[in-house]
Design brief:
With about 200 residues, this protein is α/β, with parallel strands linked by helices. It folds into 2 domains: about 130 residues, 3-Layer(aba) Sandwich (Rossmann fold), CATH 3.40.50.2300; about 60 residues, Arc Repressor Mutant, subunit A. The protein has a 6-stranded parallel beta sheet with strand order 2-1-3-4-5-6, with helices on both faces. Helix 4 links the parallel strand 4 and strand 5. Helix 6 packs across helix 9. It is elongated, with a radius of gyration of 17 Å. About 40% of the residues are buried. GO terms for molecular function: DNA binding.
Length: about 200
């Protein structure tokens, strides 16, 4: 079960529609307040929770800390409009495993959630570089390459073949922006630092 926490109904409905396309999602439960989120997390024990940080009844990352304490096995992913480095640091320190901006492309959101479910900690595309701990990538397990989806395997092969984002976009029938986001998230999932290392990994497989 996935818990979606946001005080805007249109955002909750948007995430519900996107998640409804995924076979691993059995149910999406919405919560419009921090109080509802705490209650539902305790009752439902979600495997994943997508949480906004701008709720009227919670300050900053307070809810992330509370949900992590209540349901430690739940993978918490922040989805917000705030790109402030201090807030990203606080969310990760309080238990979040992912941090996304709400204007992230749907394909990139799904790639981020897949990486988080595989055990990675992911900073989404568009989040300021200085927002990552110590000015570098957020800590991630080393190379969960065995957990790639068929689409990610294809993407990795394209990177290994030296394809540019424009060529990858054409191969995958997505926009160039989406291709760029998917590459960034695959690099995060693999636990490597850049495209070159991803290509080297692809050619060793």
């Amino acid at each position: 079960m996935v818990l979606v926490v946001d005080d805007h109904p249109v955002v909750r409905q948007g995430f519900a529609g996107l998640l409804g396309t995924q076979p691993w999602v059995t149910r999406v439960v919405p919560a419009g307040t921090a109080a509802d989120a705490r209650r539902l997390a305790t009752l439902e024990a979600p495997a994943l929770a997508i949480v906004d940080l701008g709720l009227p009844d919670a300050e900053g990352t307070e809810l992330i800390r509370q949900l992590h304490a209540a349901v430690p096995r739940c993978a918490l992913v922040v989805a917000t409009m705030s790109n402030h480095a201090e807030l990203v640091h606080a969310a990760l320190a309080d238990g979040a495993r992912g941090y996304l901006l709400k204007d992230t492309e749907p394909d990139a959101v799904l790639a981020c959630l897949a990486a988080v479910r595989a055990g990675a900690r992911v900073i989404g595309p568009g989040v300021a570089a200085e927002a990552s701990p110590a000015g570098g990538p957020a800590p991630r397990p080393a190379g969960p390459a065995g957990d790639l989806t068929p689409r990610e395997e294809r993407l990795l092969a394209l990177i290994g073949a030296g394809k540019r984002n424009q060529e990858i976009a054409a191969e995958l029938s997505v926009s160039e922006k989406t291709a760029r986001n998917l590459v960034a998230l695959l690099i995060a999932k693999l636990g490597v630092t850049d495209r070159v290392q991803a290509a080297l990994l692809a050619n060793r497989r």
